[in-house]
Amino acid sequence: VQLVESGGGLVQPGGSLRLSCAASGFTFSSYRMSWYRQAPGKERELVAAIISAGGTTNYADSVKGRFTISRDNAKNTVVLQMNSLKPEDTAVYYCNARTYYPKFTNYWGQGTQVTISS
């Protein structure tokens, strides 16, 4: 199983970044896909999630209206489009795959650094 994130980097406040997560080794279309982030000294938090069929999403209040999560089940990828970035968005962003059927299974990527600074 692999979840490989890409697209992180350093951008100025107000800028945009597009994070991608390429998945392999499991039935991607059966998993809920999410992006989490962890800032220094803080707990990991859910940023955005999308169900297996791709129709339902949910977002942390802090990113609503600025971030968009999407998935392509044919390409086994999930994308987080981040706009209007703020310094407080600075964190390591992790891709997560999760299912509860037939048993709870949870996979994490290695993370990609996002730094928002002028």
Walk me through the topology.
Blueprint: E1 2-6, E2 9-11, E3 17-24, E4 32-38, E5 45-50, E6 57-59, E7 67-72, E8 77-82, E9 91-99, E10 105-108, E11 112-116
Parallel strand pairs: 2-11
Antiparallel strand pairs: 1-3, 3-8, 4-5, 4-9, 5-6, 7-8, 9-10, 9-11
Low-pLDDT stretches: none
What would the average pLDDT be, to the nearest integer?
A: 96
Order of helices and strands: EEEEEEEEEEE
By DSSP (H or I, 4+ residues per run), the number of helices equals 0
| Termini gap | 37 Å
State the helical fraction. under 10%
Largest sheet: 7 strands, mixed
The coarse overall form would be globular
Secondary structure class reads mainly beta
The portion of residues forming beta strands comes to over 45%
Q: How many β strands by DSSP?
A: 11
C-alpha-based Rg, rounded: 14 Å
